[in-house]
């Protein structure tokens, strides 16, 4: 590459934990290794009136946040964002993710989107559970539509559990999904960059139906069968994600896509597999996508 490229990294103003800071450092260091400048901006620093464009000079933007309006504003100013505002929108809302996967006939758990509620009302009536029980039966998984690290994912063993979970969710809207018994406490995190797998780890937890590392799960490198890799590639494509961490469960008849993450935390993947997703993302953007 003859000329030095420049990028910006957009991060959330309020996520100031060591966990997030470390991830941002991985991306900055990867850019440096490839001779690319990567200036960091918080969402607060880019906060501006609607309709007023940010005058930023860079070849690309790594948008590592879920602030869809801000990402869209940057795109309207002419900035190429990875991931795009549309991909972030579809990944952040599990109901929209499910609809996008379904439209592409990608294997996924049977899913119902609970009727819309409001912050000050919550699920004050739960008659819709009748239909959910007939379609899914128990146990069933209840997920808040927006959430991370498995913290807003619950397992209802019966009607009383479901009612209690809905009360605790308050006004947070949910989806209800089939419980995949063949994948209890186990799944694959398959990282996709520009249509190719870049590292895969098996996540497992003997004490929880969720496999998330944050919830006490463990991980190790794993070589998935081709149908699992293809399912992850198709899932990333379905939501329009240039890069994604795709969670794939072990179904009775093959892969079942659980979630697609548009800004995956990849330290665990690095520790398990030696694959630095920051390097793969920057390398693809600099030498493949824009060369």
CATH architecture of the largest domain: 2-Layer Sandwich
Major beta sheet, specifics?
Answer: 5 strands, antiparallel
Return the string of H and E elements. EHEEHEHHEHEEHEEEEHEEHH
Which value, in Å, is the CA radius of gyration? 20 Å
- By DSSP, the count of extended strands is 13
Strand order of the largest sheet: 11-10-9-12-13
Tell me the name of the CATH class of the largest domain.
Answer: Alpha Beta
Q: Find the CATH topology of the largest domain.
A: D-amino Acid Aminotransferase, Chain A, domain 1
Q: Terminal Cα separation, in Å?
A: 8 Å
Could you explain the architecture of this structure?
The mean pLDDT is 93. Helix content is 33%, strand content 25%. It has 3 domains: 6-83, Rossmann fold; 89-107 and 182-289, D-amino Acid Aminotransferase, Chain A, domain 1; 111-179, Dna Ligase, domain 1. Helix 3 (85-92) packs across helix 4. The radius of gyration is 20 Å and the shape is globular. It contains 9 helices and 13 strands. The protein starts with 5 loop residues before the first strand and ends with a helix. The strands form 3 sheets. Strands 11-10-9-12-13 form a 5-stranded antiparallel sheet, sandwiched between helices. The chain has 291 residues and is of the alpha+beta class.
């Amino acid at each position: 590459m003859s000329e030095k490229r420049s990028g910006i990294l957009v991060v959330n103003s309020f996520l100031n934990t060591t966990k997030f800071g470390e991830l941002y450092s991985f991306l900055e260091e990867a850019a440096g290794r490839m001779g690319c400048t990567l200036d960091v901006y918080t969402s607060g620093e880019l906060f501006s009136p609607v309709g007023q464009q940010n005058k930023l000079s860079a070849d690309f933007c790594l948008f590592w946040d879920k602030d869809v309006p801000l990402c869209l504003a940057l795109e309207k100013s002419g900035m190429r964002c990875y991931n795009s505002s549309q991909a972030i929108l579809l990944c952040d809302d599990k109901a929209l993710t499910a609809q996008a996967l379904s439209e592409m006939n990608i294997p996924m758990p049977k899913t119902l989107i609970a009727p819309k509620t409001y912050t000050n009302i919550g699920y004050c009536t739960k008659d819709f559970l009748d239909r959910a029980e007939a379609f899914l039966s128990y146990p069933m998984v209840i997920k808040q539509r927006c959430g991370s690290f498995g913290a807003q994912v619950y397992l209802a063993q019966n009607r009383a559990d479901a009612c209690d979970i809905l009360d605790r969710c308050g006004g947070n809207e949910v989806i209800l999904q089939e419980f995949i018994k063949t994948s209890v406490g186990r799944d694959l995190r398959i990282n996709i960059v520009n249509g190719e797998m870049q590292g895969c780890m098996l996540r497992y937890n003997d004490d929880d139906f969720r496999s998330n590392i944050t919830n006490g799960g463990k991980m190790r490198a794993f070589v998935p069968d081709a149908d699992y890799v293809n399912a992850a590639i198709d899932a990333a494509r379905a939501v329009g994600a240039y890069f994604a961490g795709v969670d794939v469960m072990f179904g009775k008849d093959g892969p079942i896509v659980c979630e697609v993450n548009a800004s995956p935390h990849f330290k665990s993947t690095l520790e398990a597999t030696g694959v630095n997703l920051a390097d793969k993302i920057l390398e693809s953007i600099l030498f493949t996508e824009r060369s």
